[in-house]
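queue> pop job 88
queue> type: inverse folding (structure -> sequence)
queue> payload:
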């Protein structure tokens, strides 16, 4: 009886003091149903208000309910594999930085099993030619990325299951990206080149507790148990042309150096039985205290939301049909006006359709877009007022 009274008193003291008494979670490999699907993320506009999220805590309490949305995007995971990545669990579309601001589109492949979630590499499915005129001044100068599989000799492990407080893991991989370079001033005409990369990644579980987040769709708050994971990535690149090291003068023109090293820092908050983090914070290259972006996953916080996810109750919008299979979608509302606009974006965040001063009935031609998932952002007075996933089946 005395023991029971003491336990009750201790509970009252802890509650009264505002301490979090949540249990530490373990993150295991998620069920298949949570791996191959499409998730929605919101980028946080006022991310600098949450710089303390990087501080390690034991049985900690974090609150990001004052976050404001800078827009939403889709994270689509497809279950198909390829010859280069036969053991992959899913793939996703990526926009991969190559060097000096140059980038290419690729398909990235990930393996998920009971022991780990690991990044296998990328595949460039179509030849991509990128003009270099703005860099070199030569009208026909370009870099070409041929069709190829960029396979990492050792996968980079994102999660080593089971994940608990204090656990850490490191993986180092090497891979080669092929390209062809044409620059008249250097006498290069479709010259074969390679970027050889060594990438080291270290992840550590530095804390645990609960984080209070806002569902931007409903405005509701949720307190969710999480593990706090710190990630450091070091990438070293070397460049070769015609089998020899690329000349320093050429690299300088692109803001590069031979054997250059870049360091990246990230902080994640993982919840149980999910593949991707609930909250992800990315810091700028070689600036481990300068936040580059912060993202909050929206799915499975509120399973009952329907229609457009409204951030502003004054905007009542319907988007139909969804899925769209006849080349058009319609945006309709009784209270749209000159202050309302929309943007249709793809998985890369690129704006494919947009219009200011939307009327009460807006028909949007999407017949030339590839089948897949997109997102419609609706703005009022320049602020995001709502969004909706759109499936196009052309």
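queue> result:
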């Amino acid at each position: 009886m005395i023991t029971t009274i003491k336990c009750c008193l201790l509970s009252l003291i802890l509650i009264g003091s505002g301490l979090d008494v949540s249990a530490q979670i373990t993150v295991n490999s998620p069920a298949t149903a949570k791996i191959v699907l499409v998730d929605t993320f919101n980028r946080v506009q006022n991310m600098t208000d949450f710089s303390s999220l990087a501080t390690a805590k034991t049985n900690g309490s974090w609150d990001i309910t004052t976050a404001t949305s800078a827009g939403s995007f889709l994270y689509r995971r497809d279950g198909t594999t390829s010859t280069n990545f036969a053991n992959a669990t899913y793939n996703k579309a990526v926009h991969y930085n190559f060097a000096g601001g140059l980038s290419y589109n690729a398909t990235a492949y990930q393996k998920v099993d009971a022991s780990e979630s690991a990044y296998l590499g990328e595949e460039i499915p179509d030849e991509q030619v990128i003009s270099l005129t703005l860099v070199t001044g030569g009208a026909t100068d370009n870099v070409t990325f041929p069709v190829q599989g960029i396979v990492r000799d050792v996968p980079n492990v994102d999660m080593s299951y089971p994940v608990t407080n204090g656990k850490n893991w490191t993986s180092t991989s090497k891979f080669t990206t092929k390209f062809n370079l044409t620059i008249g001033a250097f006498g290069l005409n479709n010259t074969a080149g390679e970027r050889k990369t060594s990438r080291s990644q270290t992840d550590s579980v530095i804390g645990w507790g609960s984080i209070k987040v806002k569902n931007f769709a409903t405005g509701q708050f949720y307190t969710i148990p999480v593990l706090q994971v710190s990630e450091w990535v070091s990438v070293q690149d070397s460049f070769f042309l015609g089998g020899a090291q690329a000349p320093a003068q050429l690299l300088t023109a692109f803001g590069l150096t031979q054997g250059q090293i870049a360091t990246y820092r990230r902080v994640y908050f993982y919840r149980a039985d999910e593949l991707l983090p609930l909250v992800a914070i990315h810091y700028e290259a070689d600036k481990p205290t300068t936040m580059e972006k912060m993202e909050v996953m929206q799915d499975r916080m509120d399973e009952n939301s329907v229609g457009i996810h409204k951030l502003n109750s004054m905007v009542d919008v319907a988007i139909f049909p969804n899925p769209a299979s006849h080349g058009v979608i319609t945006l309709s509302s009784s209270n749209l006006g000159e202050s309302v606009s929309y943007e249709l974006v793809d998985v890369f965040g690129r704006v494919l359709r947009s219009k200011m001063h939307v009327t009460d009935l807006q028909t949007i031609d999407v017949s030339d877009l590839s089948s897949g998932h997109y997102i419609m952002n609706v703005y009022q007075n320049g602020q995001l007022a709502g969004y909706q996933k759109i499936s196009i089946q052309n």
